[in-house]
Amino acid sequence: MVLVLNGVLQDDCPMDTASLFMQHPIYRDYAQQLLNIPTKSVGPVGLLYVGQREMAAAAPHDKNINIVGTDDATTCIIVVVRHSGSGAVALAHFDGTGVDEAVCTMVGRVQELALGYPEGRIELQLIGGYRDPQSYGEEVFYNIMQSFHKHHLEIDLTQACVGELNTVLRGDVNCPIVYGVGVNIKTGEIFPAAFPERGPDRELRDARIFMGAQNVLDVYDAALGMLRIGPFNYDPLRGADLWLAQSDEFLLQHLSSSPDVEPPHFAMHMRATIRFIQENQFPAITVFRDNRPRYYRRDETTGFWSLVRY
């Protein structure tokens, strides 16, 4: 009863994207406004990159971050929660796992960062989840909508560039239009984006997903102004050599939910992740010494994240 669609409090949650767009066609216009913005390639300086099954929250006054963003979303959905009064924003990359808990964490983080600021609404934006053959994107959409609908706060859906609105036909294949977005935390502007460099510990963070982590990792400590990874562990991967011996096409077909539309670097990233797992079979021992997170601080000279040594 607390999801607000087109300014109207809802008793029921839309079952799918088609129902949402049929009952509230205004979201077609909102999506088109986003699609009309050219995709920007965002460099690493001032960037907080969020990977799959990760989230992060920050406020406009944060001197370490200008842009928070994510990409490579095909059947996944990018979720942005923003407080209209303070500008505090949280961004997550959801694939359907750990959504309920992460939604509560996102809203909680935004509320914490908005304390002491003028009153405002909690706004929700969804981007991704193209119309794929297996309807994985629809499942993720439904999970997200249900999670926000169950939340005790009123949450105003202001963008839903998902499903058919984020789909283009190329030949006879449905493809996503937008794979990634960035949010300028100073202004609240949201735009289609690609991220050639994705911040530190990329293979470590991807290994967590590959090995089946069931939670969404909060990767930023706004109070400390530091990127925070882990600690976590996973079981050793059997048959890593066999995976690495396969062709790129084999990896694509067996490790992707949407093999026809993955970016060209998919197989390369999968190989790097598997090699990392092979070399770090027990990250609790080899990576997270004394069970400590890996903290990164923004270097004021270069603008890059640098590992904090203890």
TrEMBL record:
InterPro entries: NTAN1. Pfam families: N_Asn_amidohyd. One of its GO terms (cellular component) is nucleus. Transmembrane segments: none annotated. One of its GO terms (biological process) is ubiquitin-dependent protein catabolic process. One of its GO terms (molecular function) is protein-N-terminal asparagine amidohydrolase activity. This is Protein N-terminal asparagine amidohydrolase. It comes from Glossina brevipalpis.
